[in-house]
Specification:
elongated; 3 strands; YefM-like fold; alpha+beta; single chain; 3 helices
Amino acid sequence: MLVISSREFRDKQAEYMDRADNGEQIIVQRGKSKAYAITPVKDGDLYLSEVQLEDFITGDELLERLKPRIKALFERK
């Protein structure tokens, strides 16, 4: 494992990304209390940009789901 400063990473980004591609663990230290791991993204990795759209609802759908609850709140005495 290699620990480098954020300045060192900035100065030699390509080198450290190549080393990460070759399996080396690269940790970028930022100040005294923050650190980040440089890791290559693989084809099977899931990121938010790949989330399926059917998992989300539209604003109109949300409003339709909330209308009965809102109506019930105003009907309470």
